[in-house]
């Protein structure tokens, strides 16, 4: 028979003053920028306005989600450049924003590159929600949000995440978006 030794586990009590509450994290949450990121879009204020929104809300991370050719084709959005070219140009564009002093982390999500085929919005959102810390904000153009709402892709997700929309055109807002004005912000 083996002889077992008793293990004594002690907890270390820490004394704190009455009313002490641990410090909350100053930066939390993720902004997912869901877009085609055409190289000509750099002149537009879309990405810089999303970056400013993340800074204003003290978010911890910005993730650029570049849509693949098959996804753009299915959404009837013309793709001027191939996927690898668009993701490289976005990386070059975001390089000046990356710095040691900045509390904002910047990442490029290459999920569409791994799949190589049409990725439904629901699949992309489930992947992103599992990978990145919440709360999750999804930034996109109003035209993209209207297309997704027309496909019925926003029905479930408008309750789970907060949308940040950029009004890139004079399109009317889809009724699904109009019915939930407390679930999105317009830049």
Molecular structure report:
There is one protein chain. With 187 residues, this protein is of the alpha/beta class. The chain has a single domain, classed as HUPs (Rossmann fold, 3-Layer(aba) Sandwich). It has helices at 46-56, 69-74, 83-94, 111-115, 121-131, 142-151, 154-160, 175-179, and strands at residues 30-35, 61-66, 105-109, 136-141, 162-166, 184-186. Strands 3-2-1-4-5-6 form a six-stranded parallel beta sheet, sandwiched between helices. It starts with 29 loop residues before the first strand and ends with a strand.
Summed up:
The chain is α/β, with parallel strands linked by helices. The protein has helices spanning about 45-55, 70-75, 85-95, 110-115, 120-130, 140-150, 155-160, 175-180, and strands spanning about 30-35, 60-65, 105-110, 135-140, 160-165, 185. The protein has one domain: 3-Layer(aba) Sandwich (Rossmann fold).
